[in-house]
Amino acid sequence: MVIDFSRLNSAPPLTGSTRSSNHQEAGSATQAAPAPSPEQASAPSGESVRLSPEAQQLQKIGDALREQPAVDSSRVAELKQAIADGSYKVDSQRVAGKLLEMEAQR
């Protein structure tokens, strides 16, 4: 489908418009063309994208986070052991403070 941005606020194109008929012809010609080689597929013609240093840094951070496990297994094992042997102590002041913080954010 071709969108003619120059005609967005004007009347629709007349039947037999050269844009839509050319697009259909070009589409059928494109289907018959051989597939591009991997070198051609990786290098788009005349277009390039350049990421800012901030965007590159965010991408690296995102990649590093995806590599991290969702659960810290060693910390879970440590807490399980502390609960099992009775050495785990609940800080009621901290729990109450966190509950109040959560309630204040609502």
UniProtKB/TrEMBL annotation:
The keyword Transcription regulation applies. Transmembrane segments: none annotated. GO terms for biological process: bacterial-type flagellum organization; negative regulation of DNA-templated transcription. SUPFAM superfamilies: Anti-sigma factor FlgM. Residues 1-69 are annotated as: Disordered. Residues 48-101 form the Anti-sigma-28 factor FlgM C-terminal domain. Keywords: Bacterial flagellum biogenesis, Cell projection, Cilium, Flagellum, Repressor, Transcription, Transcription regulation. Residues 24-48 have a biased composition (Low complexity). The keyword NADP does not apply. InterPro entries: Anti-sigma-28_factor_FlgM_sf, FlgM, FlgM_C. Belongs to the FlgM family. Responsible for the coupling of flagellin expression to flagellar assembly by preventing expression of the flagellin genes when a component of the middle class of proteins is defective. It negatively regulates flagellar genes by inhibiting the activity of FliA by directly binding to FliA. This is Negative regulator of flagellin synthesis.
